[in-house]
Design brief:
Elements lengths: L1 E4 L6 E5 L2 H7 L3 H4 L14 H12 L4 E8 L5 E12 L5 E10 L1 H12 L4 H26 L9 H17 L4 E9 L2 H8 L1 H17 L6 E6 L2 E9 L2 H15 L3 E3 L2 E3 L3 E7 L7 H17 L4 E4 L2 H20 L5 E10 L5 E12 L3 E3 L1 H11 L2 H22 L7 E5 L2 H4 L4 H12 L6 E6 H4 L3 H14 L2 E7 L8 H4 L4 E4 L1 H5 L9 H14 L2 E4 L5 H9 L4 E2 L10 H17 L9
Parallel strand pairs: 11-12, 14-16, 16-17, 17-18, 18-19, 19-20, 20-21
Antiparallel strand pairs: 1-2, 1-5, 3-4, 4-5, 6-8, 6-11, 7-8, 9-10, 13-14, 13-21, 14-15
Helix pairs in contact: 7-8, 11-12, 13-15, 15-17
Length: 588
């Protein structure tokens, strides 16, 4: 039967019984399910021993014991009981599987043996029964420590073997153990498109190929999902582990035939090398996992060796994820505003809203560090919504406060996850309505790589936004795919020339004048505006003006400002513009 751990008293509830349960104990499934398993006990049952075994199961240990039970109607029966705990993802025991076996005849035989020797036939039967019991126990032990799908050792058995391997290597310093953590790169796609049966068949096929790459003494395990773990013993250095990783990648490069389908599967592999003074088995597995995730980040279908700095990076990323989830509620996030200036007349046209995170203990955390964490964890969605609303609301307040800046615009960066979010255009429309900002005063910045991610869906969303009146800008132009085709395919209003082309060399003039001028000319012929980023010197401003570049932003005009400093900047700029003679715009 399957028993669920429940709160309060009695603490355990029967959730499932099989036909053997009904046959042996006389209770129907309807009578048993939902009841307390203590219903099977009676006046002669050793309840203290049973409670002790239940405590063992709750602690995560296997319980094997014999107990006098009672059939329906009160007839006693001896059962050999086995309890195997089941854990949830957090490691807590939530259920247990109970196996009961009628040993009444054996008990009678045992009682007879106490009184006198039984006949030779009884001895033979007893020996057979013991052998059957040992075989049953062996099957139960195998089931407890092996993956039912592939027949490979599970995580518990794998950790035990790693522990033994590390102990042996400590006696022979010249021989070391290594753990390889392997994760299939495209398994989810197979599950989603062909179904879980095809996924199971693929996992079995992958397991067989992995076994062919290993020596007889090595251990291949499946901890769960589409992950595999490998233990290499008696190796001299990391080169031997790398050789195995390479042979695995080569073995997986051949197609898999699953019925009518031919599939290709790759893997990301992390390698961690043990040493006599090295980490515990659990830490060694963790290090291999960290290296495996690094391999995924670097493009998949590859291996990576663990380095100590990877653990530090992983710990830092985990900390940032935990703290970032609390940052919004704890008002740790803010926007900085960098001015965008027209090069034709020097007027301030708008700001770019830039997300900032000031942690009370970690200090100022750079966007280049926490934005990738937000994108990987999906936190970019709520963060992006907050940035959009805050930027629009603040810009509208500035417009209302100063007639000179009634058309002030704001640039907001959006990620591919936001664009692919269902009803993103409706969210933008609702934000504009709630804040009162006009659609044409909101400029959304999108990177080149974003445009190439599911281009059909992205194009549809951009057309919706453009129809709404929102302006669309390509950020960091020239650093991504640099495909000119999307300038016709997508409704782009503005190109932002990346700062590396403007001030990347740290010189007074334009770093790459030929590229900058070519982009300006191209954009002009396509009817697209241009903003140059990273302008730091007056000479760069002058050159950009000579190239007929429309606008610019950078430290020459101002660093990113908090809302209060930006308001003062607006006020000073308005007074300066009012006192300055009107300058004629250059001919285009």
């Amino acid at each position: 039967m399957i028993v669920e751990r429940s709160s309060g008293d009695p603490g355990w509830t029967i959730r499932y019984v099989n036909q053997a349960f009904t046959r042996i104990l006389g209770y129907t499934s309807k009578e048993a399910v939902g009841a307390n398993p203590l219903m099977l006990c009676g006046p002669e049952s050793d309840l203290e021993a049973l409670q002790q075994r239940l405590g063992d199961a709750l602690a995560g240990n296997t319980a094997l014991f014999e107990l006098l039970h009672y059939r329906k109607g009160g007839v006693p029966i001896w059962l050999e009981a086995s309890i195997f705990p089941l854990r949830n993802r957090d490691g807590a025991v939530t259920h247990s599987v109970w196996f009961g076996r009628d040993i009444g005849e054996r008990k009678l035989a045992e009682s007879a043996l106490v009184r006198a020797k039984v006949a030779e036939e009884s001895n033979a039967e007893l020996r057979k029964e013991i052998a059957d019991r040992k075989r049953a126990e062996a099957r139960l032990v195998h089931a407890a420590f092996h993956d039912p799908l592939t027949g490979l050792p599970n995580r518990e058995l794998f950790v035990d073997r790693v522990k033994s391997a590390l102990a042996r290597s400590s006696l022979h310093p010249g021989k070391r153990a290594a753990v390889l953590s392997l994760d299939c790169d495209r398994f989810k796609l197979v599950n989603d498109t062909l179904g879980h049966l095809a996924g199971d068949l693929l996992l079995i096929a992958v397991a067989r190929r992995l076994e062919a790459c290993l020596r007889p003494g090595d251990t291949l395990a499946r901890p769960g999902g589409d992950e595999f773990s490998i233990l290499l013993e008696d190796i001299h250095d990391e080169a031997a582990a790398v050789c195995v990783a390479k042979s695995i990648l080569e073995a997986l490069s051949a197609p898999f035939s699953l019925g009518d389908h031919e599939l290709y599967e790759t893997a990301s592999i992390g390698i961690a090398l043990g040493s006599p003074e090295g980490p515990t088995p659990e830490n060694l597995l963790r290090d291999a996992d960290i290296a495996m995730h690094r391999a995924k980040v670097l493009g998949k279908n590859r291996y990576e060796l663990f380095e100590t700095k990877l653990r530090e990076q992983s710990s830092r990323l985990l900390l940032l994820e935990l703290e970032l989830r609390r940052a919004l509620d704890r008002a740790q996030l803010s926007l900085a505003y960098q001015p965008i200036v027209s090069l034709a007349d020097g007027n301030l046209t708008g700001f770019e809203g830039l997300l900032r995170w000031q942690h009370p203990e970690l200090g100022a955390i750079p966007p280049l560090e926490f934005i990738p964490v937000a994108e990987e964890t999906g936190l970019i969605i709520p963060l992006g919504e907050w940035v959009l609303h805050a930027a629009c609301a603040q810009t509208r307040l500035w417009q209302q406060a100063s007639p000179a800046h009634a058309t002030l615009s704001v640039n907001v960066n959006v990620s591919v996850q936001q664009l692919l979010q269902e009803r993103f255009t409706d969210r933008v429309r609702d934000t504009l309505r709630e804040t009162g900002l006009r659609a044409e005063d909101l400029h959304l910045e999108i990177t080149e790589s974003t445009l190439m991610t599911e281009p059909d869906r992205i194009a549809a969303v951009l057309r919706e936004l453009h129809a709404l009146g929102v302006k669309l800008q390509v950020d960091d132009f020239g650093t991504g795919y640099s495909s000119l085709a999307y300038l016709h395919r997508f409704p782009i209003d503005t190109l932002k020339i990346d700062r590396t082309f403007v001030s990347g060399r740290g010189e007074a003039g334009i770093a790459n004048p030929e590229i900058v001028q070519a982009v300006v000319v191209l954009a002009s012929r396509l009817g697209i505006d241009v903003i140059a980023e990273g302008v730091e010197t007056a000479e760069q401003e002058s050159q950009l003006g000579a190239y007929r570049c429309g606008s610019a932003q950078g430290y020459l005009f101002a660093k990113p400002l908090d809302a209060h400093a930006a308001a003062r900047y607006l006020s000073a700029h308005a007074m300066h513009e009012a006192a300055r003679p009107v300058r004629k715009k250059r001919a285009s």
